[in-house]
């Protein structure tokens, strides 16, 4: 591969000749800005310049910065870590999108060293209203959309989790009908949108309860290992299985997950394991009704949650 550099007062032209004699000419004007777009290294969309050391689109740049700054822990929705990341499907699996950002060598250190936005000295009228994108007419519609995304993603994660893969569809649905609210809160705590800010403030009592619940789980800062083990424990419900053999299998999986979680958390704190268990137990059955009020009504109206669970595969 050969490279040549030509310059004048306004632009630098870099010509790169590959082994197949393909010549790609990229014009750099005023630093990193390109007058002619190139392909985003992450999703293939149009990129007009470098972000964190890599040519990528504004969407992938913002996603990468947000993920690194907030230390968000994602899990693959398919459970394989091999989801396709392109322009049409880049929002489908945040885990695989972030992994691709790292594979193309986007610079984590550059995000950490970057100065954040300056804090305004003037008081904000309503912080929760400020985080609602302009393309949404109302705050409620935005909340319903986020709820649908979390619900869909969390159920698909659950169906690919170890306890679920050995069960028939009927048993899966039975367990998910009883535990969907727990997996929902676990994922909501790591969701890129700041739901705590969105739901807090001058809102309803129910919204404040849900915001407090999500905040307590975010405060635990579960790492990927802890997240997956906690999700396994939530889904290990041998009491809801249809056969003795499956009940025994789920009991073994649950015991192994509990032992693994206890061992893993012991390296951080001797009390962390019990703190995590307390968080899980705080997501009681009555909170499922609160979640439905906040995130799904009136969009689903009188449709029962077990029907929604059964149609998501």
From TrEMBL:
CDD domains: NR_DBD_PNR_like_2 (cd06957). It is found in: Nucleus. Keywords: DNA-binding, Metal-binding, Nucleus, Receptor, Transcription, Transcription regulation, Zinc, Zinc-finger. One of its GO terms (cellular component) is nucleus. Pfam families: zf-C4 (PF00105). This is Nuclear hormone receptor family member nhr-67 isoform X1. PANTHER family: NUCLEAR HORMONE RECEPTOR. PROSITE patterns: NUCLEAR_REC_DBD_1, NUCLEAR_REC_DBD_2. InterPro entries: NHR-like_dom_sf, Nuclear_hormone_rcpt_NR2, Znf_hrmn_rcpt, Znf_NHR/GATA. One of its GO terms (molecular function) is sequence-specific DNA binding. Residues 37-113 form the Nuclear receptor domain. Signal peptide: none annotated. SMART domains: ZnF_C4.
């Amino acid at each position: 591969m050969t490279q040549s550099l030509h310059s004048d007062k306004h632009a630098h032209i870099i010509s790169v000749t590959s082994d197949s004699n393909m010549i790609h000419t990229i014009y750099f004007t005023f630093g990193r800005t390109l007058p002619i777009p190139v392909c985003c290294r992450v999703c293939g969309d149009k990129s007009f310049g470098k972000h964190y050391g890599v040519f990528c689109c504004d969407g992938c740049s913002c996603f990468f910065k947000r993920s690194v700054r907030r230390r968000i822990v994602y899990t693959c929705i398919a459970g394989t870590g091999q989801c396709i990341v392109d322009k049409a499907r880049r929002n489908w699996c945040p885990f695989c999108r972030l992994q691709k950002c790292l594979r193309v060598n986007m610079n984590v250190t550059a995000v950490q060293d970057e100065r954040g936005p300056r804090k305004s000295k003037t008081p904000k009228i309503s912080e929760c209203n400020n985080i609602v994108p302009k393309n949404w007419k109302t705050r409620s519609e935005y909340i319903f959309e986020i709820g649908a995304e979390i619900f869909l993603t969390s159920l698909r994660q659950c169906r690919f989790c170890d306890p679920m893969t050995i069960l028939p569809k009927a048993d899966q649905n039975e367990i998910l009908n009883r535990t969907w609210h727990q997996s929902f809160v676990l994922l909501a705590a790591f969701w890129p949108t700041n739901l705590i800010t969105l739901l807090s403030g001058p809102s309803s009592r129910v919204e404040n309860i849900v915001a407090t619940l999500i905040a307590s789980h975010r405060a635990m800062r579960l790492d990927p290992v802890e997240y997956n083990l906690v999700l396994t424990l939530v889904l290990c419900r041998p009491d809801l299985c249809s056969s003795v053999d499956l009940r025994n299998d789920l009991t073994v999986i649950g015991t192994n997950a509990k032992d693994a979680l206890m061992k893993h958390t012991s390296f951080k704190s001797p009390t962390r394991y019990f703190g995590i268990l307390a968080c899980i137990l705080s997501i009681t059955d009555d909170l499922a009704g609160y979640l439905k009020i906040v995130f799904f009504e009136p969009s689903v109206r009188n449709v029962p949650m077990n029907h929604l669970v059964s149609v998501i595969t």
